[in-house]
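Give me the fold.
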Amino acid sequence: MQEEIADAVARALRVRLLPGRIPSARERRTSSPSAYDHYLLGRTLLLGGTPEGARRAAEELEKVVALDPSYAPAYANLAIALHDIGGDMQDPVAARAYRRKALATADRAVSVGPDLPEAYAARGLLRHLQRDWSGARDDLERAVRLGPGDPVAHRRLAIFLAGQGRFEDAVTAAGRAIELDPLGHLHWRWLGVIQASMGKTGIALDSVRRALELMPTSQWIRGELAQDEVLDGHAAEALEQLPYLTELDRLYVTALAQHDLGHDDEARRALGDIVARFSFREAGRVADVYAHWRDRDRAFEWLERGLREGQEIDLNLDPFLRDLRADARWNDLLRKAGLPSDVARQ
């Protein structure tokens, strides 16, 4: 019935999304009402922006694919949930296993939904995080072609473009996502991240605050807000967010903000905890702290280590590394990450 309605509406209005193509609901529907209920709950939990939400989302989405193995949107969302779970684990072996499973699940989403923008957008994001730049670009550009009205595809393309150093293009893509979905908190969050990476911390704070208005329970958005407060010179305000943050973000913000307040012992204790417990996957955070402390040599040492170990480090999309871009070592680091060296001059 859904397919018949979609065909009838498309023909009646002569809608042309792509040449010769009539909009289809095939990849977006499931014949199982129970599966759809689990899907809606899983997607909502995933959007909540907490590690626990990601775990619960994965449980719900696993039920969906068990009930309907052909339902592509469930695989696309499950891939992101699995990645987020892996990113919160303290066991390096388990974390890597989750992220491998996440990419395999995204491959499955594309396989069962070859015309679904959401599937390519999910795989494109995961490829980006693993520094498969050409694969990410192909997936994300295809996601936008297949779904020009899909805000998630535009948002994830924006993240990729910023990671390549194409900040103005990234702002345009993020703005398009917001035009399509003004109440999408993740669009505002990532616009803020991009703006902060451009050094525009004032407007970045406005964007992140808007994201928080839309999703006040998100621990990850709270973390972005605290980081931007530090960047904007508001260390005390950043510390006000500590009760709402994940454990890692609490240590990270403490190391940054307490240093700015002149409490070096407390800042160094927090950094020591990050190194002892999280450095197997958070070398970039350690580098951020050293960069913020103006210790460039140690910042570069930790970035080199993170890249060597295959950790997820987005050099251009990290506002705490902005001051390193003028260093002669920056271009060499970009080359090691597979990025064009002239990005540093933009």
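The CA atoms of residues 96 and 258 lie 32 Å apart.
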